[in-house]
# Entry
Amino acid sequence: MQVFLIRHPPPRLAAGLCYGQLDVDADDALPIVERLRPLLPHATPIVASPLRRTRQLAEALHRRPQFDRRLMEIDFGEWEGRAWEHIDRAALDAWAADLRHFAPPGGESAAMLQARVVDCLAGLRFKRVALVTHAGPIRAALGHWLRLPVEEWSRLTIDFGSLTLIEVEAGTGAALRYLNR
# Structure
């Protein structure tokens, strides 16, 4: 299966905010669509996070994208909408010390994020599909398919508006074709 992982355009909000599942608009998707459309084979189905910043891009790329809440960004709980500099330093240190299992108050851990993303991936029944989503789910998917520890997949750079292609073969593993195109 070919999986095109596409990150949404930059969100329209102040720099330095923790925004995970906040439903915010994004910059114009058209320049990204014009750049990515030639890279997507004709009639590639699209499954996307339902948040506005991904929905806008998915709808610009495809007449009828499907939406799946399991592709939403990590839930930062009580941290959502707060400036990173105003989040308790001890809590941020606890998160850094246990990337896989620490969950912000009312939020989810990286393990929880990856579990729901993998659940979504397991249900995909396409020969080829584009997932329009967020950096967290893209990293989680790549970590799963490439068998990377959370300390590696959580640090992958996934640019706004980028496309990453991975080819997955049942039982034989996955091959990363390109990252951040």
